[in-house]
Amino acid sequence: MAPPITGIGSQKKARLQRLKEEVMRFVFSNPGCSAQSIVAFLSNDRNMRNHGLTPRKIGFFIPRHLKPHLTWWQDHTAGRRVYGPLPQDESTSSSETY
Predict the structure, then answer these.
(1) Rounded to an integer, what distance in angstroms lies between the CA atom of residue 31 and that of residue 50?
(2) Other C-beta atoms within 10 Å of 93: how many?
(3) For residues 52, 58, 61 and 62, what is the CA-based torsion angle, rounded to 10 degrees?
(4) What is the arrangement of strands in the sheet containing 80-85, beginning at the earlier edge strand?
(5) What is the rounded distance in angstroms from the CA atom of residue 57 to the CA atom of residue 97?
């Protein structure tokens, strides 16, 4: 019988953090992209094949983990969600004057 697992899950946290960073990097450079294009980029170009990514999983992942950074809207011509960065608030993007 194997001993009980007492680790803190550092590999799981590292994978989650890498996935967050890669999804944000792709969506910020390609606003208006679909979940299918995100999965294709991550699986083929970024060698994340063993993560078991599907468009459905990405569709659930973005609102759950990246809500402060990304948003989605409905593409009515194709009938699917497309993702993009949140617009910056006027108060945070403008520089302070003294």
Answers:
(1) 26
(2) 8
(3) 150
(4) 33-34, 80-85, 70-75
(5) 44
CB 31 within 8 A of CB 85: yes
Task: Print burial letters for 24-43: b (CB count within 10 Å at least 16), e (below 16).
Answer: bebbeeeeebbbebbbebbb
Report residue 86 as tokens: 């949140």
Nearest CA-CA partner of 57 in 39, 71, 45: 39
pTM of the model: 0.75
Q: What is the pLDDT of residues 20-52, one digit of tens each?
A: 999 999 999 999 999 999 999 998 888 877 778
Instruction: Render pLDDT for 56-81 as a digit per residue (tens, 0 to 9).
Output: 999 999 999 999 999 999 988 888 89
